[in-house]
Amino acid sequence: KKWYEQLPEGKSTGKVQNETEDVILKRRLAQALHQHDGELYKKHTESRSRRSEMQWVHTVLSKGTLADKVAAHTLLIQDSPVHNLSSLDTLISMVSPKGKKECLMAMDGLRDLFLSDLLKPDAKLKPFSQRPLGEVHSVKDVGDSKKLLLWHFEDLLKNRYVTFLEAVEKVSFDQVDKMKLRAVACMYHLLAHNPEQEQRLLEHLVNKLGDRMHSVASRASHFLTQLTGQHPLIKPAVVAEVERLLYRPNISPKAQYYGLCFLSQLLLSDDEGDLARQLVRLYFGFFKKCAHAGEADSRTLRVLLTGVNRAFPYARSNDPDGTGAFL
Fold it and tell me: What GO CC terms are in its UniProt record (predicted)?
């Protein structure tokens, strides 16, 4: 059973509570429970039935190759994520541009771990203070103590996922193409397969359209196209994010061009009239801006015209008067 399948789902408060005396007290209780549970887990792993297995793992961690060490940490996390956060921390610390080989190995391993074992498949992780702590009355009650322990772990995991993403973002600014491309691919896979931190991941993936390396900007565009194909409902959010990129201060003309190219290739359907109208307004608005500033070169005009021609037929659908008055 995954850790989140053992989680008794109480009602969420819907908002993060301030660190009230009750929240602080429950957090301390949860920390104590986590520490105590960790000691019990350690005793279990030292028992006769698991001793040889754990001895092998610890031997690998101290004397094995880099690949073996990453595999051993992964095994420990899969065995019990709640009790092996130190292994998770170790892998996250490896995600740094300083050590290229271990960085790529750890980044790919963590991507798979988060998607297969750690993140909830269809829901975002909740902070501890957003949990209905009033439901917990006594840590002597098995159900209450389990709730508190797992809510605390969920909170710790949420923070560590953010730390991991920060590390991946740093790698995406490395000077080496291969490092950047792998980081961008990692962000895409996380965004495409899980809702956790989706806005942050989307913003960073869109920002890579402005990367100075052609291969990185092109790959970011490819991933965004794949993303909108897999998840059509995310299209408006992607368009809004690309529009923000286009009008960002000090944005390079090349980044604007890549952003427009991506938008002009966006596949639309008959029931996406609102989105098509949004795109047509964006194209005309950007043309006016460029014309006013004297920056409308032929390449930009071509991609704007392509975008309008592709979006206009869908923009007219469901338009009350059919005249395109939305312009």
Answer: nucleus
Write b or e for each residue in 100-119: b if 16 or more Cβ atoms lie within 10 A of its Cβ, otherwise e: eebbbbbbbbbbebbbeebb
Structure tokens, 319: 């338009």
Dihedral angle of Cα 188, 109, 94, 102, to the nearest 10 degrees: -100
Report d(CA 146, CA 72) in Å as an integer.
27
On whether the CB atoms of residues 168 and 95 are closer than 8 A, the answer is: yes
Cβ burial, residue 212 (10 Å; 0-12/13-18/19+): exposed
Range from 14-23, 118-127, 266-275, 305-314 carrying the lowest mean pLDDT? 14-23
Q: Residues 213-231: pLDDT tens digits? A: 999 999 999 999 999 999 9
Q: Are 233 and 221 in contact (CB under 8 A)?
A: no
Q: Under a CB-based contact definition with an 8 Å cutoff, are residues 86 and 156 in contact?
A: no
pTM (two decimals): 0.92
- Which among 297, 290, 242 has a CA at the least distance from the CA of 264? 242
Q: In this structure, are residues 144 and 150 in contact, taking their beta carbons and an 8 Å threshold?
A: no
Q: Is the dihedral of CA 226, 208, 188, 151 positive or negative?
A: negative
pLDDT value of residue 167: 98
Q: How far is CA 9 from CA 72, 129, 144, 147, 179, in A?
A: 31, 15, 12, 8, 39
Class of residue 263 by CB neighbours under 10 A (exposed 0-12, middle 13-18, buried 19+): buried
Structure confidence by residue, pLDDT tens digits, 67-82? 999 999 999 999 999 9
* Residue with tokens 């031997």, as numbered in its chain: 59
Whole-angstrom Cα distance, residue 63 to residue 72? 11
